[in-house]
Amino acid sequence: SRPRVAPPPRCWLARPHHWWRLSLCMLLLLSPGTGTGLLATRGLDRSRQGPPPGAASASAQPVAGDSLAAPSRLGIPRVVFLPSGGGGDDLSEFDLPPAPREGEYGSALASPLAGEYADWGSLARLPPAQLRGSDLNELLQPDSVQRLRFVVSPMEAYGALFRWDTVFAGLRDLHAAAWAEVAEAHGLPFDAEDSDRTVGRRPEIAVTQVFRWQPALDDWGVAQALSYEFCEALGRRFSSYAFEPRPGAVRLLTLLNEYQVPCCLCSELDERSLSDKVEAADMARFFQASICAEDGAETAEQAYLASCVKLRRPPARCVVFEDSPQGVSSAKEALAKAVALVGKHPAYEMMHADLRISSLEDLTLMAIRELFSGEEPR
User: Fold this and answer.
1) Which of 15, 36, 292, 358 has its CA 20 to 30 A from that of 298?
2) 131, 306 contact by CB (below 8 A)
3) For 209, what's the count of Cα atoms within 13 Å in the CB-facing half-sphere?
């Protein structure tokens, strides 16, 4: 039999499934690292080519929206696009830095709201009547440093807003007695239930929109005179009255301060009277901010929004403690959570509150935390 002769060996380049190796070799040989690569001759490697003839040296600087070839590990240029904010000096072989997350302060300034809120200080300079809860929810989001701190202390991301009557007892009775004295002196009709709606409002607004006394509706000067008499009557009673904290208020405020939850006290009193009475009750150490008559808040909703600005917490991350249906409605209008203190008003009148309690002693820290359990952190 004839011996079998082995066929001559074929070159590996002749096999079709090895052609990709030849392509890779040619690509590496013609890379811009040699200075004579094919890609470099087509002008994609701008980092190695100088400015075109007749162009100024400043034209070599990258501009917004332009493309730039950034070298990779293999020496192959990779075309990237510069963001509209400029840059290009610190380009690396990795991806560009991520854009600010939606809701952060930097991205908020790039939104259409930048015309109204140029910086953080502009919020403090705005009157409470021009504040909007939806805008504050966007602009008061924590920055990257605060986010890291909130990971360590989660409760610090929230804020607590207290009406005066939820911490101290007796102010509504003083208001009712002062309005009753003014109404009796001028022979005007008076309803004790209407006096509850005047708490948190300017006296002129209470005269014209709550009591609707006819002489004040016809003449604004009469409304101012009645308001001045009310302030005098309230001042005489207020100066001699010693306020005491409600049951459970000291325990709750101590717990909130222990977990670094900022607290704000909202009242329609002037700043001096507010500070004197709070210090006399030994409660000043619990509050990091306060809202008084000098802040210009005409309604309870405006007072809550101004409190969020002072605490630097978005309204969606704040809880308001109220004891009246009107106050709960104001808290919901400010886009904040509402905890209703049942007692002066029955529970069925405050069904729109997020939580109803009979006393501050019944409230726990986990109950406050569960109010925000359904929201995703931003």
Assistant:
1) 358
2) yes
3) 11
**pLDDT tens sequence across 140-187:** 888 888 888 888 888 999 999 999 989 998 888 888 899 999 999 999
Q: What is the CA radius of gyration of the chain?
A: 34
Mean local confidence (pLDDT), 182-203: 83
| φ, ψ for residue 159, nearest 5 deg | -130, 150
Residue 165, number of CB atoms within 10 A of its CB: 25
Q: d(Cα 269, Cα 313) in Å, to the nearest integer?
A: 23
Please give the Cα distance from 227 to 221 (Å, whole number). 10
pLDDT band at 287 (very low <50, low <70, confident <90, very high): very high
Which of 351, 260, 267, 358 has its CA nearest to residue 306? Answer: 267
| CA geometry: angle 266, 295, 355, nearest 5 deg | 25
Closest among 58, 54, 34 to 45, alpha carbons compared? 34
What are the pLDDT digits (tens) for 298-313? Answer: 888 999 999 999 999 9
